[in-house]
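User: Show me a protein chain along with its predicted structure.
Assistant: Here is one chain, sequence first, then structure tokens.
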Amino acid sequence: MGPRTVAKLLEFEQNAVPAVNRLRQLRSEARGGSPGGSDEEIRLAVDAVCAAVEGLQGLMTARQIVATCADLRTWQAAGCEGVPHFDSTRDAVPAPEDGEAAAFVGPVTLPNSDRHDVHIEAFSVIREDPDSTPLLQATYPHPKAVFQSTRLLSASRGLREGNCVVFFPENIPAATRCTDQNFAWFFFNRHTEIYAHTLAITERLCGPGSPFAGEDELVSADVGAEDTYQARCVWGTCTTTSTTPARAPSTSTWRSRRPGGRGSWRSSRST
């Protein structure tokens, strides 16, 4: 990741995310009957979101920037009421290449989130495929699979507070039906925190150690963040590719760390 991309990501975190959070707060106040959240304040908040989006060259394509601002303006003209329709934005979101940063600003439903209302959200990612991806995709090809392993970097309140780990075209509210899945962002670094939370619940309900008969401890309890990310990426790659191998792999890609214990993918990275 180059210095210009880092600067853009910081700009996104400092400008786009606060602008979207401010819009969310004002709309919530307006619906709750609070003194804040007047029509004029909400209009100005949308202006601020548009201004932030217009400066996101390098994280968004020119087409995505134009589409996002146009959809925001259309929603603004309708009084920011009801579920917004962001068809143009949906159709302009790209599938980032490996190592490429990307961002999204717009309405989105959040699977596995505690929030059911649709809000304007803002989030940035960087795509980082695991080292095993080329072998898996060559062995189990699926030409129609559209799948990106990403790390969630900055995000507005709705995405930060829930457990959403996916972003598909069908998650963007639109007036027209979604017929093609041109992208699929998976936020696999979120699984580190989610799994740590799962382990805490397991210990609270079942006591320390392993809840499984014949085991004193869970072998996965000490898995680090990078191992978790790599493993989830492998899971995602395998679930979005063909189950019929195109050819037998020339070497085994899985090794056992100890008899009966967990294994690890062979990789130049720490996995």
